[in-house]
Each structure stands twice: as structure tokens, then as C-alpha cells.
Design brief:
Blueprint: E1 2-7, H1 10-19, E2 27-32, E3 42-43, H2 51-61, E4 65-68, H3 71-76, H4 78-84, E5 89-90, H5 94-101, H6 103-112, E6 120-123, H7 126-136, E7 140-144, E8 153-156, H8 159-170, E9 182-186, E10 191-199, E11 204-206, E12 211-212, E13 215-217, E14 221-224, E15 229-232, H9 239-259, E16 266-275, E17 278-285, H10 293-299, H11 305-313, E18 327-334, H12 351-355, E19 360-364, E20 367-370, E21 373-376, E22 380-388, H13 391-404, H14 418-423
Parallel strand pairs: 1-2, 1-4, 2-3, 4-5
Antiparallel strand pairs: 6-9, 7-8, 7-9, 10-11, 10-16, 12-15, 13-14, 15-18, 16-17, 18-22, 19-22, 20-21
Helix pairs in contact: 1-10, 5-6, 7-8
Length: about 425
Amino acid sequence: MKVLVIGSGGREHALVWKIAQSPLVDKVFCAPGNPGIGRIAENVPIAVDDLPGLLSFARQEGIGLTVVGPELPLSLGLVDLFEEYGLKVFGARRNAARIEASKAFAKEIMHKYNVPTAAYEVFTEVEPAIAFIDRLGAPIVVKADGLAAGKGVVVAQTRDEAVAAVREMLSGNAFGDAGSRVVIEEFLRGEEASFLAFTDGRNIIPLASAQDHKAVFDGDRGPNTGGMGAYSPAPVVTPAIHEKAMVEVMRRTVDGMAAEGRPYRGVLYAGLMIDGGSVKTLEFNARFGDPECQPLLMRMKSDIVPVLLAIADGDLSGVSIEWHDKAAVCVVMAAPGYPGDYRKGDTITGLDAAAEISDLFVFHAGTAERDGNFVTNGGRVLGVTALGDTVQGAIDRAYQGVAAISWDGVHFRGDIGKKALGRS
């Protein structure tokens, strides 16, 4: 079978890497892919939002399964289009992907179906938003309603910071149409975890637990990014928390979406805030997290392709997933300036040396090729991902890989996985 993966980042490199291992798969294509992906699959120069181009390629090439990585093509209705032409495709349909494409819609679903979340209100005008900020007080969270590449959330520590974020989003056009509405919600205390599950709209199979690191600097300081690293398993997700997440978050959301006439098929990502025995939902994503996907797929023992096919066929019953006992850690290496304006074109050295390290893989996220060398071509450039018998072992191996790789101005967090050590 031929498989087409759509996307160009570290998440898609991980998906291609895992899918290519399946005995069911003869060839993997990736559109548009990146140079790292091009080492294990054939890149196809079609943009993720070129739906007619992707459809034409899939039909012409006889693709047996298409796997959608990023949120944009899901929100544009790529899955609906492929299904209309009888093509097998893994991902949420457009009306279900709205759970990520609109934070206001996600909050409405949570409120209606009793999914625990923070108190909130939605605004399109500055002055009422400021009045709500004054009523709730700081710290407080301001979110652009639409898709903002993981960066449309401001955790404001002061009133002035919150007001500035509202003005920037609603008046300053910081996120374009994505910021034409804002969701303002109470600040939740606790520790974040990423909870992902496969679902066919009825059956739900949880993935292993994981934790992302959104802030750019060590100690969770600085502005939010698309994610500076992740690890799995996450000890903060105890058996009791896991049960709560499945019953109160995943089950209620999947059933609620079905009741709304928006059956959810694909992978559903819930960002959770855990405080003692309490679980509240920060957000939903309609796809694999990036970088959570990288350590999760490193730990997945089962062939992923039968799972993806079962969801594309609408029936997960009878499917199970095995996981390696080992831990996995992904450290994101970023370009200078990220998550603000960042530089491109710096030559990356040390990739061959990193490739010699056992149980480690370097996933490309934002790279290009120039004169036979890999160069930086994005904010998040590489995801250095390693397995270890323990979380500490995985941390040590991942940072061994990071130490081997360099370019001018590279930056990364030095504390990925440390929260797990505190709980082990």
C-alpha cells in the first residue's frame, strides 16, 4: 500500500518514520515534506492547503491511505473532500476539527457537555473584554479564537499585560482573523499534561501519557512557543487522573460531538491542567501534538498503520496498542529569535554524529538543504528524541544528541523531563 502524509514538520517526520516501518506499506509520500523526511520518503511539492492538488495526486498515485498531520488542512475540509472521492483518510472532518479551529466553540462544547474547564467569556470588542479582566483579576489567560500555530495564548501575570494582549489581538491584528475574537478565561494552577486518544467517533483508545513544554526558557519562563520539548510517560498522569481524563474529558467530548452531529474521528488531543486530584481542560487539538508525537511514536510498539486504517474505516473495535516500557524525551532545538522573528539559513553541523547514538532519532522540523548541507529554515528546527530505560536515561541520551549538533545561535531548553524526575 502507498501512504501519503500531509505536512512538513517534526510531527510529520515522526509519522513518516513510524508508518514506513509497517509491513503493510510499500511506499510513503509526504506533501510537502522536508529534507529530513526526504531521506525516508518521497517529498511531493504540494502545499498543505492546496486541497485540489493533494486530491489529484492521491487519485493519480493510487494512495491507499492519507494521514493528515497539521490542523490547517483539517479545518479546510481535506478529510471531507477525500472521503467524497472514496479515498481512505485519517483525520477529523471539517465540522469536527472546529474543536481546535475555534477556541470559543471548544469552550461551548465543554460547557454544554460538562467537560471540566476554566471559567471564561468570549469577546469581539476591547472595552467589554477589559471590564471582564478587571472583574476576574490577574493572572488571567487571553486566547486568540482561531488557529495561531500554537502561539495565540497569553498567560498574563498582570492586568496591564492582559489588556495589552487584548488590544493587540482585537485591534492590533496580531493574529489576523484568528484574533478577531478572543477567549478570556480564569488562570488555572497546577501542572499541564497532554492526553491524546484515538477515536472512531464511538470507541476511544488512549495513547501513552505525555507532557509538553510550551514556554521558551527553562523553568517555564518566557513567551509561549509551539512546544520546546516533550516526554512520555508523564508521572503526573496517575491511574486515577487517567481514569478521570477518559471519563470526564474524552468520553464526554466524543459523545458530545456525536450528539452535535459532528462525529469525531482521528486523534483527539486534550491539554489538561492537573492540580492534586482535579483535572480541567485547557484546550483541544484535532491532531497529534508537536512535539508530543515524537516521543509517543518512539514508544509505540504496535504497528500504527492498522490503527489509522481502522479509524479511516470508522471502526476501532478490537484494536489495541502496545507500548514500550522505556521512556522517551524530545528536545527541540530552535533558531535564534524564536518564537519571535527568527533567522534562517544557518548551517547545521553534527547530525551524522548524533545519528551514531543508539535509541536516538533526530526529527527535522524546520530545515532546508543548501550546497549539500542542512540549514535552518524554521523557528523549531530539530526534535532530538531518545529512548531510555528510565526518564533520566532518556534525558541523558537526548541531551547527548543535542550536544553533538550545532549552528550559530541555536537555543533549547535544558530542563525537558525534569518535572518527571521530581515525581518519580
